[in-house]
Every structure is written in C-alpha cells, then in structure tokens.
Amino acid sequence: MVRALSSGGDERITLSAGTGLNKYHSAPYPRDVVAYSSSTVSDISGPAFAHLLALEAAEDRPSYSDQLDGLRRRIKAAYSLSKTSEIVFAASGTDLEYVALASVHGRASGGIHNILLGADEIGSGCIHSAHGRYFAEATALGIASTPREDVAGCCPISLVDVPVRCTEGVACSSAEIAQSLASEIELAKASNRHALVHIVHGSKTGLVLPDLTDLDELQARFGVHATFVVDACQARITSPAIAAYVERGCIVLLTGSKFMGAPPFNGFAVVPSAVAELAAPLPQGFAQIFNRAEFPESWPGAQTLGEGENRSLALRLEAAVFELERFQQIAPDRVEAMIAAFEAALQAQIIEPLGVKRVLPNFTSAEGAQLDLPIEMRTLVTLDVSMLPGLRTFDDAQALHKELAHDGVRLGQPVKCVRRDGGWGGTLRVGLSMPIMSAWAEMSAAEVERQLAHDLGLVADKLREKTLTFA
Q1: Fewest CB atoms within 10 Å of the CB: 74, 117, 271, 321?
Q2: In the beta sheet, which residues pair with residue 254?
Q3: Do 373 and 342 meet the contact criterion of CB atoms below 8 Å apart?
Q4: How far apart, in whole angstroms, are the C-alpha atoms of residue 217 and residue 200?
Q5: Mean pLDDT over residues 113-141, rounded?
Q6: How many C-beta atoms surround the C-beta of residue 355 within 10 A?
Q7: What confidence tens digit (pLDDT) does each residue in 426-462 have?
C-alpha cells in the first residue's frame, strides 16, 4: 500500500530511503506526530488508510474507469454539485493547470492569455504548467519529459502573474486586484487572445481575491472574452462557495492532500457544463500526461488519450473523498465550535506567551472596515515569528520548519508575507485538516481543548527552545 501511495506522480512523491518521507516531510502511512501542516501537505489518517486496505482486499474491485466515475458521483454528492458539472482528475494541483488550459483551448485565434494571481502563494511548478509546458522530468504516467518544454499541440499561451501582496507584504484589496485583472483582460482582447483569469479562494495564507461583487463586475464587463478559474487547491472552501463559483461559470480547482488530508498528490477540477461544451479537442501532448478515464467521457478529444491506469492516483483520490465525506457529516455548529477552540488555544498557547503575531488575510469592506473571516479561512493561521531571536528571517523559519518535522512536529511551510530588516521575515503556518476535525467530532469539547493545549503547547516549547539558543 505504501508503495502504491507513493507512485504515479512526479518526483515530489518519491520517498527518501533514509527517512521514508517525501520532500515535504510527509508520509503515505499513518504516523504518531503532532501535525498541523495541512496548508502544505498531510499524512494519511489511520481511518483512511484502513479504508484503502479494505478496498484493495476486496475481490470485486472495479475497473479504473468505473472507480473514477464512482468518485465523480461521490464528489458531486458531497458538495451538492449539479449532476451536469464535469469533473476532471489530475495527479497534482500543478497538473490541474493543464485542465484549465484545455477548457479554453481554441477559444480565440491568438491563443490564451493566462493570468495567474499570486503565483508565490499557489506553487512554483504551476508557472510552467500554466504556460502549457512540462514542469518535471517525468509526467504522472511515468513518461520522460523535459521541464519548460512545450506540451505538443497547445495553442500559443502568454502568461502574467498579478501579485496579491505589495512589495511590503501587505495583501492587496479586492478592488485593487480586480483593477489589475481588468487591465490584463483588456490586453488579451487587444491581442485576440482568450483571457484565462485565475482567482484565489484560500491561498497559502488564506486570501480570497477578488470577492464575488468584483468578480461579477469583471464578468459583466468582459463576458465571453474571459473565463475564470478558481484556485481552491487548499480545499478550504464550503459547498455554497463552490456552488456560487460554478453558477457563475467558473472552473474550480481542488486538491485532496491539504485540508482534505489525503496523501499527495491528487486533485480534481469542477468544470461547469457550459464551459466544457465549448472546449476544443485536447492537445495531442495531453496523452503524455493524462489517461482516458481521468477526463469525462464526453470531453472533446478525450478518446485520443491512452487507456492506461494510474491506480495509485485512484487510491489517493479515494482517501481524499473518504475524508471529505466524513467531514461533511459533521454538524455546522460543531465545526464552528472546534474552529473557535483552535483559535482560542492558539492565542493562549502560542501568540500571547511568545509575543508573536497573527498575519490576517485582508478581508475588508469597501469602506475599509475589517470583516469577519469566512469560516473555512479560519482553519489556517499564519504566524509572524520574525520578532523571535533565531527566527527573524524567512531562511531561519525554513530551517526551523525542517527541524520540527524531524522532531515529529509538522507545521505549514513558511510563506513570504512579512517584511523584516529589508528582507522577508520568518513565518510559520498552523492549520486544521478534515481528518483532525473528524477525529475531534468524536470527542467531548473538554477533550478537544486538552488535545489542543497539549499539541500547541508542544509547538510553543519548540519555539522557545529555538529562541533560547540565540539568547
């Protein structure tokens, strides 16, 4: 099982012979560690691992195609999606960028103008796949590829990244982002290119940009000249939020290895039927990246893909959907209570005792008033730890993050969002996951509070140790 869960992807999924972990210090098997690392990647939970073992032991295992079709139905049911929405599977969030390109391939004679939003907060490999290029030395099908080489058959693609933060690390407002996106869409129209516009719902630091009001104005202004794709790869998004985007004709990208808590790498795109119906046949190079069953049967050109199987991907998707279904069964008021307990424990165990700061996403009204964070964004907290000796710089925080992982304490990777002494300051991220909250749902409120006090107290102790070495 471990071998299956650590194959069928790119080199990032490979386990180190020395540690048994991948490059993100996570494992495709249950571990007894303190893990609040879902903003980067998750270990598989014990219940999900047992679920996969039972599936593999079953005598009547479905075909690869039937298994993926079953997962499509379960995802639609879990998120209350329309049955007409299409779902495309991919080996990673990086590969999902190809799906977005395929959705608008051939829309304009000049090609595609791909407008990324906050590339620093979505992942480095996406720059290449969003440009219609390979990003690794082998695809998920195990076929050799050359990074930065064009995928055969893709139309001309221009690429631009719109920053979500200013040079001082402060998050831009929704209005500022909308203005920048509008400028790029105008450039696309002028060059007869279709604008593929990325927006974010849950970046590495929990940003949601732009808001729905500004999105509606952009769609009303540009109509058929732009298609919007929502980067929700953290999967910190509610069913009503997904529905709101899909109703607006937006493609929604999600991965199962972060908030959902499945092993990396796996993902899926929710594509509104109206968008899929306009898609041109898939570029020929997609046969090096995808199997036939990973695209819906009705997708134009899908029959040109090979009939191969990526059973490893299917297993990781099974784990993700298993966790999604468990989490969706928790009553909303119970979810709210657990998140509130998390926030209170973080304040009491780490923020107040150590004097660190919380980096708040920029949720403000048009008048500049601070708004309450959406509930899904409250499951992730970015901490500014740059005031602590030994953690002043981004590099310091990266080194500590690695040390903590080897000591059995897993947090989210540092992100460049705080300025300190002319450079980037140290940050760490603490995030909940669906498996954590599903386990807590079976505990009393007092037991959850004790668990949080233990776990976050241990994190605080590790931070104190680091500080003392520089005292």
Answers
A1: 74
A2: 268
A3: no
A4: 16
A5: 86
A6: 10
A7: 999 999 999 999 999 999 999 999 999 999 999 999 9
pLDDT at 14: 81
Residue with tokens 């590969």: 95
The pLDDT tens digits for 362-419 are: 655 555 555 578 899 999 999 999 999 999 999 999 999 999 998 999 999 999 999 9
Can you state the angle between helices 394-406 and 445-468, rounded to 10 degrees? 120
Q: How confident is the model at residue 241 (pLDDT cuts 50, 70, 90)?
A: very high
Give mean pLDDT, residues 183-196. Answer: 98
Measure the CA–CA gap between 460 and 221, rounded to whole angstroms.
Answer: 49
Looking at residue 9, what is its pLDDT?
A: 73
Per-residue pLDDT at 226 exceeds 70: yes
Residue keyed to tokens 């909250």: 437
How far apart are the C-alpha atoms of 375 and 337, rounded to whole Å?
Answer: 11
Residues 121, 141, 270, 323, CA torsion sign: negative
Q: Is 60 exposed, middle or buried (0-12, 13-18, 19+ CB in 10 A)?
A: exposed
* pLDDT > 70 fraction of the chain, expressed in percent and rounded: 96
CB under 8 Å to 350, separation ≥6 — which residues? 356, 383, 430, 456, 459, 460, 463
Q: Which amino acid is at 467?
A: T
Separation in Å, CA 151 to CA 122, 182, 282, 296: 21, 28, 11, 21
Query: Average of pLDDT values for 28-32?
Result: 89
What type of residue sits at position 223? G
Gap between the Cα atoms of 262 and 42, Å rounded:
6
Q: How far, in Å, CA of 328 to CA of 325, rounded?
A: 5
pLDDT of residue 96: 97
Q: What is the pLDDT of residue 356?
A: 96
For residue 300, pLDDT over 70 is answered with yes
